[in-house]
Design brief:
The protein is an alpha+beta fold. It is built from three helices and seven strands; from the N terminus they run αβββββββαα. The strands form two sheets. Strands 6-5-4-1-7 form a five-stranded antiparallel β-sheet, with no helix packed on it. Strands 2-3 form a two-stranded antiparallel sheet. A hairpin with a 5-residue loop joins strand 5 and strand 6. The chain is rod-shaped. The N and C termini lie far apart (about 190 Å).
Amino acid sequence: MIRKWLFVALFVCSCQAFALQDNTPTQDASSSHYIRDDLFIFMHTGPSRNYRILGSVEAGTPVTVLSRDNETDYTQIKDNQDRTGWVESKFVTTTMSQSEQLPIISEQLADSQAALQAASQENARLRQQLNDARQQVAQLSTETQTQAEKVTRLTAKVESADKDEMVTWFTRGGMVAGAGILLGVVLTYLPKKRNRSKEWM
């Protein structure tokens, strides 16, 4: 019974307010406004609750602000259903609603996760390159050490061969000198041939 009386009273007030007229300052239309979150409000045909209700506007709905009435603190809007009406100014905000922010935040989160994954993959690739470079350096160091040892051994062999060759040459020279001396001694003690001219005399 109480609901019926409230409905009748609201209907009567709306019908009376519909006949009222109000001159309001006009402002440039702006679409960067939203109905505040966590509520829904009624849209009226004029800048007060005395005007007829056109319907409700859900929280987070993007709206276009057409004008404001500073005396009644009401704002004329155009909603996403192309309806034009008046709502209380305190329920209109320039902050994007949570329902509008969620897709943007989700997209930013997805981009951040993709960038993080790409950075992780790049980091893993760089680590692999670093490990490969370290292995190559270790292999080259081992090969260098092996080559150095080979050079040392070859150098020792060359020096030993030079010494052996010098000894061989000294030995051969000594043998040649000794043979020369021996030949000289032998030639000294050999009998000399007589001169034939002296024999005929």
